[in-house]
Amino acid sequence: MFRKILIANRGEIACRVIWACKELGIKTVAVHSEADADSLHVRFADDAICIGPAQSAKSYLNIPAVISAAEIKNVDAIHPGYGFLSENAHFAEVCKACNITFIGPTPEAIRTMGDKAEAKRAMKKAGLPLLPGSEGIVQSEEDALKIAKEIGYPVIIKASAGGGGRGMRIVRNQEELLNAYHTAQHEAGAAFSDPSVYIEKYLENPRHIEFQILADSHGNVIHLGERECSIQRRHQKLIEESPSPLLTEEVRRKVGGLVVEACQTIGYVNAGTIEMLFDEHSNFYFMEMNTRVQVEHPVTEMVTGVDIVQEQISIAAGNHLRLSQDQVKIDGHSIECRINAEHPEKFTPSPGTITSLNFPNGPGVRVDTAVYPGYTVPPYYDSMIAKLVVHARTRDLAIAKMKRALDTTIIEGIKTTIPLHQKIMESEDFLRGELSTRFMENFLKRQERNV
Ligand code: MV4
């Protein structure tokens, strides 16, 4: 096992990784920007080092600064968390060249999955179903017109270097296509310095369901079931749950088996998430693979009892998975609400000082956070300040517990998304488990009518 790990991240996920290291008996080194000197991850780590000014580009994204910190502190490995350098293939390569273990997949796997068109090609070859669409990137206007005509409208144009919904364009008829094609290319070029786009059939009302997998370096792969992530706004997830209210045990077993086989085929190692779209008939299609630990990993931990971050570390140290597929049992139901420092209606950031704070607790309640009373939420980073996670025997009981958890949370001094979550927990569609990617759109429309 490793002796000492550097955590190349901040906030709740840096704390989460430190929890795992402490339980595994591994020493930790925190890195922080000048704005984060008073952060909890700095307090909880055994050692800490400042790597630059507040701006992420000069600190948490600064590869030479992170690597220098790792060398100065003589660590064996780096855990990248999510965001920042976690899906940067070049960073994983630099770690390797410096004899530091990157806790994650190989640079090659990160690179393949980072190119969304390439990822689809690889996963199709490995046996996962795809939506009808272009094979790889669209090369010309003629190509775009021909593919769209073949698969039929509506279609969606996506940036190959994008992912998570940035730079997408829905096209409803041939007249709109070329305009959308050029706009999408332009946006992709500006945002990712890569104008490549691909086309696929647009599903009107799909569900976003993702499977968590774990793979060791000895060829063993397991899945930990799925997470339902359909409740999103501006392609930011708000609420996630596991299991999905839509999947039967039979479908879970079938899709789980397929994703495990696909990951075995491509030789994937470490934790990964297979994002799928499901239609109303439980047809499913591979969309993207995320090669990092995800924000919403706790709901999977709650229903399986598996510590995903500990497994990531153990796998990176060359150990075998600590459980087999038969030992994975999905027990009860878990829901996560992401609490953001935002105006709950306008969704604009609300940084500032937390003057009063109480988090819920009790059986089946987990809070992943890095804030404390008197903490000032800086304006430089993501606005998520806490994840409220509950676990209960059934979905209804989990919803009741989440309502109670939200009602007993106090965060004063800044605005948060708690009031929004409280309303969603009361909404008919949510209670019925009628979730789709249209959920928030419909919910917000109803809200407007009611005020
Ligand atoms: C789609 C889609 C419908 N058809 N792809 C991809 C990334 C995600 N953030 C949005 N994505 C979508 N891809 C096809 N072929 C619909 C969405 C989508 C969506 C997905 C999940 C949750 C909310 C969403 C809101 C709008 C669109």
* CATH architecture verdict of the largest domain: 2-Layer Sandwich
> What share of the residues does DSSP label as strand, in percent?
15-25%
The major pleated sheet works out as: 8 strands, antiparallel
Please give the radius of gyration in angstroms.
22 Å
**Which strand order do you get reading across the main beta sheet?**
13-12-9-10-11-14-19-17
Oligomer: single chain
CATH homologous superfamily assignment of the largest domain: ATP-grasp fold, B domain
On the 0 to 100 scale, the average pLDDT is 96
Helix percent reads 25-40%
What would your notes on this structure say?
This protein is globular. The chain is of the alpha+beta class. It is built from 15 helices and 20 strands. An 8-stranded antiparallel sheet has the order 13-12-9-10-11-14-19-17, with helices on both faces. Helix 7 packs across helix 8 and helix 12 runs antiparallel to helix 13. The chain folds into 3 domains: 100 residues, Rossmann fold (3-Layer(aba) Sandwich); 70 residues, 2-Layer Sandwich (Dna Ligase, domain 1); 244 residues, D-amino Acid Aminotransferase, Chain A, domain 1 (2-Layer Sandwich). The structure holds ligand MV4. The site of ligand MV4 has 15 residues, from strand 8 and strand 10.
